[in-house]
Amino acid sequence: MITRTDAEQLDQRDPLANYRQQFALPEQTIYLDGNSLGALPKRVKQRVSETVNQQWGNDLIGSWNTHQWVNLPQIVGEKIAPVIGAAKKQVICCDSISVNLFKLLSVAIQLNGSERRPYILSSHDNFPTDLYIAQGLQQQIGSTTCRFKDVAEEQLYDAINDEVAVVMVTEVNFRSGKRLDIKALTEKAHQHGALIIVDLAHSAGVMPIELDTWNVDFAVGCTYKYLNAGPGAPAFIYVNKRWHNKAQQPIAGWFGHKSPFDFDPTYAPDSGIKQYLAGTPAIISMAAVDSALDLFADLDLQHVRTKSIQLTTLFHQLIEQHELTEQLTLLSPTDASQRGSQLSYQHPQAYGLCQALIKRGVIADFRAPSYIRFGFAPLYNRHTDVYDAVNTLCEVLDNGEHLAIEWQTRQSVT
Ligand SMILES: Cc1ncc(COP(=O)(O)O)c(C=O)c1O
Ligand SMILES: Nc1c(O)cccc1C(=O)C[C@H](N)C(=O)O
């Protein structure tokens, strides 16, 4: 029988316990939605205020040079690189995942697509934007050299064959939390002459990632989940150095030009990762990413992964202890090593359950048609949060509070 004292003891022994005080978290809230929007680091508040008030307000346009605004995408990229296992000069911070995927898929098809090898292969429960971008590109290029095919996630590995130009996968599934073996998928892709693009949205910052060691070709990821850089903060893009200068990305904007401030009418791409920039960087958000990443400077991602596994394991053990497994069907893998930092359960009134929990200060989210997701952010979630959240969940179910909440047809984020 697990007690609250057990959870308190785990918190006392937690090597990451001090990180929580670096976040501005609301009192009386248990935030289990850091897999959608990470919490606000206190240092980011200060940095954004300084960027707006001193830099923009006082130093105005000179800040492009004096405060390094013009180089922030590269500076931030170099801070992201160690978090995803990349050597220098292969990562840059810009745009959204959707836009960055468009650039990478186009490049991968230029490099490897042909009539004999036309396929972009993905799984049909990949995050929808990834699928939409591939479908959009197929429309753009035409199906002779670019066709999109999606298969069930379990069939992805076996579906890689000599007709595949590029495999596009997300390391951790947004709905189920299932984690794919990127090393094995990369090996299989390369055996068949295919390239691989990996979406790290649900893994960057919450587990060790070894892009260079795994020999991955390209990757994208966001900074607003486990990297805590704020809503709509710019994403990142990784291009393995063997692919630099081999193809031109399609959004040939001036920031990707080799010397943008020459204002030359003819596009000449930068030879390195900077080519993947398009237009003017969103400096206020980019400053937030830069500052948020300082939390990762001395962090051992293996410690983060260990705590993440402890948190998800504890949550599910408590669900079992309260005999809730009949009502809440676990969609995530039962083996913690096979999942990311979230647990998803199917429940017939998942929407009502989620809203009833939010009313009580436990923030989870709902994903259609019938899933409730709990995300665990090891830098600020405690074992006692997990204990208290499961207790609240029991109370909600016992009182039938979830049954009183009407299904909302409007678009709801949580
Ligand atoms: C796996 C995955 N890819 C992409 C996105 C969205 O990408 P963006 O809105 O940055 O284009 C999300 C979530 O928003 C996601 O979970
Ligand atoms: N990116 C988001 C947004 O702009 C608004 C609301 C939610 C999101 C998300 O991140 C959703 C998330 N990728 C998910 O896994 O569902």
TrEMBL record:
Belongs to the kynureninase family. It catalyses: 3-hydroxy-L-kynurenine + H2O = 3-hydroxyanthranilate + L-alanine + H(+); L-kynurenine + H2O = anthranilate + L-alanine + H(+). InterPro entries: Kynureninase, PyrdxlP-dep_Trfase, PyrdxlP-dep_Trfase_major, PyrdxlP-dep_Trfase_small. The gene is kynU. Its cofactor is pyridoxal 5'-phosphate. This is Kynureninase. It is an enzyme of class 3 (hydrolase). Pyridoxal 5'-phosphate binds at residues 97-98, 127-130, 170, 199, 202, 224, 254, 280.
